[in-house]
Amino acid sequence: MGNVINLKVNGLNYSVDVELGETLLDVLREKLDITSPKRGCEMGECGACTVIMNDLAVNSCLVLAIEANNAEIYTVESLKKNGKLHPLQKSFVDNGAIQCGFCTPGMLMSAKALIDRNPDPTEDDIKEAIAGNICRCTGYKPIVEAIKKAVSTMKKEGS
Amino acid sequence: MSVKTRVVGTSVSRKDALEKVTGAAKFVDDMKFGPGLLHAKLLRSPYPHARIIKIDTSKAEALPGVRAVISGKDFNQYIGLYLLDRTLYAVDKVRYVGEPVAGVAAETVEIAEDALKLIDVEYEELTGIFDPEDALKPGAPILHEKLGEYECAPFIFPQPGTNISNYFKVRKGDVDSAFKQCAHITEQEYFVPHLQHTPLETHVAVAKVDDAGLYTLWTSSQSPFAQRNLLAKSLEIPYHKLRVITPYVGGGFGSKAGVSIEGCVIPLAIKASPRPVKLHLTREEEFYCTFVRQGLKAKVKIGVDSEGRILAMENTYYWDAGAYTEYGVNITRASGYSSTGPYLVPNVKADSYCCYTNHPVGGPMRGFGMPEIHWAIEQAIDTICCKIGMDPVEFRMKNALKGGDLSVTGGVMHPNGLKKCILKAAQDLSWDQPKPKAGEGRKIGRGIAAMWKAPAMPPDASSGAILKFNEDATVNLLVSGMEIGQGTHTVMAQMAAEVLGIPYEWIRVHTPDTDYSPYEWQTVASRLTWSMGNAVVKAAEDARQQILELAANHWGCGLEELDIQNGMIIQIEDPGKTIPLKDSVIYGIRGKDGNLRGGPIIGRGNFIPPDVTPLDRETGQGPKAVVHFTTGAQAAEIEVDEETGRIHLRKISSCYDVGKAINPLNVICQSIGGIYMGLSTGMFEQLKMHNGTPLNNNLSDYVTATVADMPDEIFASFVEVPQADGPFGARGVGEHTMVPTAPAIANAIYDALGVRIRSMPMTPEKIVCALKQKRLESKDKKKIEQAFASIE
Ligand code: FES
Ligand code: FES
Asked: Which domains are delineated in chain B?
């Protein structure tokens, strides 16, 4: 009771009163109304709650809120800049990587964390990066394809 | 029906894509209900079969923070879609582990959980049934003593005094004499275990009953109107006072069809009124407390003549339907009227039994019985092919049902592209080329399987559509088919845009709210593109007609002289003469006399399958059993390690006859997703149970295929033999895409190793065991042969 944590989410600073057992996922969804990280299992098994915390993709259901004190967090809400979709988002739309959409925010954040640290990933790197994200709809292939294409777009745009 | 189309037939991007990549898409769990929200938890039966001696909830009620406690004593109403065999909460007996016995609504989840521990339930354990054939044995405990009193649909035939909640049979021709004429006969048994659909979003529902007696339910459901219908009937709520709101659904695959947890939440909301009550299933609960896929034991017997033509089939299906079969009874029926697979079989005997067991509740899952029966049929056919030395593609081409043939129920098969699909699936794997060389200690195999599936639904499953123009000529399209990932919003908008003559981008499709959206039976049976699509086309035609009449009147010309293109009404012969839809679809058109005519344009459309007929109870015969069948085929090329039994999927091809691909990319994506689900359920998934107790209730122990298990290459395609009564010729394909995957892989295993895996899933252990067995048998055979040789 009465633990205040400070955290930066999608570039904004927040001070939040949290309970001891509360998770980062709870804080994002219930206290900050950032609902893109989803509750798929709350046991670290599905990846639907994936966010980027201090440059790493994490299952936010496994991170205690107090562990997130002073952390820098990014969710899928941060990807669109100046009204423009991030190349990853655009590529997911164009390549059939979305069906029900429940895995999509987590999937995108796993992919984003990957290309942030490795702008030129191999197909195996991509598969490894999303290995913890379950998708029951798409059969994964379109997602891998979408990430590959986003990477090549970003390389072109960067050069 | 080869009209030139602008939007229909193109791969425009999904209507819901932007919301889903930005995080804007809202699912029920994302909705906010304010500080008044109460949280529900359910006390569930720890026993598969037991009598409830007493329930004492007084201590739980006294716990601070608890606002409502409910049990079967308070709410004992029956509910169900096809057979009303289930109560909202257990009454007198529990019949599966996980059955709701009591419910609590409290200020926090933690308080609700604590309260559950304070509820005293005294049980007397009863003998359980855990195998569908055991359920039929004389002396088996009867799970539903009141089976004879349950209300049911006219095409469901429960057998009171037994554990059979539906029995469907086919008697066509004369199988006994036909088998006598057969050159070859094979008789085999197959097994399919229980599965869990495992949508990524678990079930969640919020209910509120306000002080004026208005009920509102927000739920992750495929069936807002079926929810309203079943719940209103069960709880005797006037339909207009029960409002069901269903936002996006995070995957359904059948598990969110009909009613499940909602029946537990509403009673709590009644008692805690006017506060909203939310129930969010944990992943563990999701595994066995909602619908699971029914298990199946199948016995199939197929006989062919010397030319490889099928003369007779005798199939018996024992469905392990679980503790309640309110929905599953219709799977039994569907597997009966589809019991032969997509083949011309002149003599058929089929018996399909829906058997109560003390397993979780069997319900609809993608394919609605078809993946299960094709697992058996397609492997049995492969066996016959090996026996008579006929190529499996040739065999299927020879026996495939074509337009005009009589199907298993005696109806005339409509024109279809099944043969084209079989050929295409084979071609994509270079079927007629020699197999590539396998690696050291490995074998390569190829297999093929075909399929058919009809929308399984009552004959009067109908659809409605409303479309409303706005001032700027954009359109809000109201339908109540659920966007569960299959892309239905996209194809509906495409069809409407095509007919209306406006850009696709001008249309927005809404998730339903039963207070404002038109009726739709349910989002099941892969029926939306066809049924709801027909309603949407009619609604668009209705609006178009109103607009054109207005313009024709204004210009004093005939309707046939006009068209709408890109949001403009034009005179075909004189395209310079135009009236923009903008403004005129709301404010009307001012005539030369100075008077305004018209007003807000609202299109409405409905659709009901006109001519499905009942089937004879004794023979299963009738002129039109179903609205249509979608057919298709898949082939697999695998490499399997002889030592470890591990399968590497090299290639999978698939081809379906979709009538018309409204959105080709969507069809391909459904196919890839279906292949994934087909191989995942075929090779990995099984809800393991010991005497009714589920053992693998989490995503680590319940294994699903990962990205690494997907085939190296997928060739997904479609053919288009138009459906005469389909919108633009279309028919559904969502579920079909997973049906033949598992048997195609199983047939490839046989081709590679000469062993047949008859029980799903095809795990490496089963393959290794089968290989060992085969080696032993061939050794024994050699020994016996040697012994005979020495005697001679
Ligand atoms: S909800 Fe966090 S991993 Fe599933
Ligand atoms: S799109 Fe449904 S779980 Fe991935």
From this structure: 17-24+461-607 (3.30.365.10), 33-126+200-251+256-288 (3.90.1170.50), 292-457+613-771 (3.30.365.10)
